[in-house]
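Onboarding guide, step 5: your first structure request.
Type a short instruction followed by the sequence, for example:

Predict the 3D structure of this protein.
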Amino acid sequence: MRALFLFLLLLFGFILNANNASKKADSLIALSKTAADTQKVNLYLAACRSLWEIDDAKSLEYANVALQLAEKIGFKKAIPKAHGYMGIVYDNLGRGDTAMVLYIQSAKEFEEVGNLLWASYSYRNLAVSYRQRGWYKEAMKYFLDALRVCETMKDTAGIILCYISIGGVHDHLENEVEGIKWHRKALQLGTLINDKYSIALAYNNLGVCNDDIKNYDSAIYYHNLSLKLYEELSDYGSIVNSCGNLGNTFTHLKKYDEAEKILEQGIKISTIRNVNTVVLFVYINLGMVYTIKNKFADAEKMLFKALDLNKTISYTEKEMEAYYRLNELYQKQNKHQLALVYFQKYVTLRDSLYKVDAVSKLAEMQTLYETEKKEAENNELKTQNLEKEVAIKSRNSYLVILSALVAVVVLLSLLFYNRYKSKQEKILAHEVLKQQDQRTRAVIEAEEKERARIARELHDSVGQQLSAVKINLSALEGDLQNQKTKYELLINLVDEAVREVRNISHNMMPNTLMRSGLVSAVREFVDKIAVSGLAKINLEIAGLENRLGATVETVLYRVLQECVSNIIKHAHAKTITIQFVKHDDAVSMMIEDDGSGFDTKNINDYEGIGLKNIISRVQFFNGTVGFDSALGKGTTANIEIPVNAHS
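The system replies with structure tokens like these:
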């Protein structure tokens, strides 16, 4: 189970150098001969860790030595670590059942000794083992346990990983809407701490969920975002995974040439960079595409490669899918005997998987039944004893019952009072938040109304007066023949003032935004920038066929104005790319430039009010703002605003 091993190894935070692992292990064991007992335990554990990938038997032997010595000398902090290491080795050997028992044991022991960080690792390892076997109910339970521990520790990175894992389980359970919620929570938290790995993984999973609900445009959008980030991070395994996901979405769209191209690119990268453990489902998807395109020999080659690779990974669901795709391939070639063979393998594996799940649920129900039966017997015995006491000590029983009733009445009164008090406090807090929301909204709306009023005044009053001045000056043209140069200069100044008034009024409140909506206003704004020659603008808009609420449209337009203004004034960019994408319940805006960039680590230290205006306006609508930039490498701003509650 090498793919699972790689994930577990990442969680424990170690990077191994396989070439030097054996020498390192030998030197650690040599040091242990003269070390104190506790140090000897740690040296054996380190030797176990160094041999994970090259010698499973030796690695397990060292873990056992460390465990026995730790138990002998009472070194409690090392015992759960030894159990966790042994679990990883057994997982690597394909003995997942033994590994899961060790993970449960190590997680409980880590909690007992107060090592919550490693407890969360063990819970996540256990959850991954269940997920690998398709037991999603159990996987969800242990991912939630890991989340509980991470929240107790305030481990932000761990919380993000748990959010993403829980969202992935919901996706497997075909509850994609709930999965999207968890992935967005991960994206929001990852953006907050500017963790590019977390952001890329959240983008990837949002793409998968949108693909599952047939929202293919959004799926491609998120997969491209994740692919771009993984390329920046040089994370080749994840690049291959993103290629596979993009190929899957193109296949659903019946864009088979594009699917073939991106899937072959993923396989090429996996070969060059030696990341074969993540290429399993790319083989299967490419085999399916080749079948559709009647490239039967290539399809057969890909699918058998997938089955061969799965011998070291043991990913049951992917093995089932490979059998099913082989059945499809042979049916299309009219090789019905071979098709039947692989269909039977598919059915046998599927039935065995469901049978295991059914046996697990039956055992759970049996345990529940026995527990309830025992509780019923205990309750009956208590009732009999109570009747005997009442018969023997009736007077004392009455006093006890009366006291108990009084205590219950007092307790219930306190409980109801506390609940009432808590409810009133919540209502008050809700009203305070509501009033704050209304005040903030009123300030924004008042600001926009004042802009509109000033714009009208400039256009209708000052503009008209300047036009009247020009008319009167024109009437005097015949009397000013001797001062024609001064007259023409004066006329030009009036014309320039009229144009400036018109520009100011339009910038303060564009007529197109009020009359035709956000899309038209944005296109008009982009056209003006293009005509001015200040920068080349690429504009993409998807899903905004209907208008949004007036306040949301105004905020999005102002944020766009502020961003583009900053790019032109400070970044000196040659090209600006703007994307608007409307999802089910949110609008995403991406603004990318090739300008001078800035250091996002010190974003709060900038004295200008432009960025603060952007962030405050978006956060008012519970939106998110993320800036990805570095000096000399341009800037990408990602803005997302929920729209249903404000439209």
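Each response can be followed by summary notes, for example: Residues 394-475 form the longest helix (82 residues).
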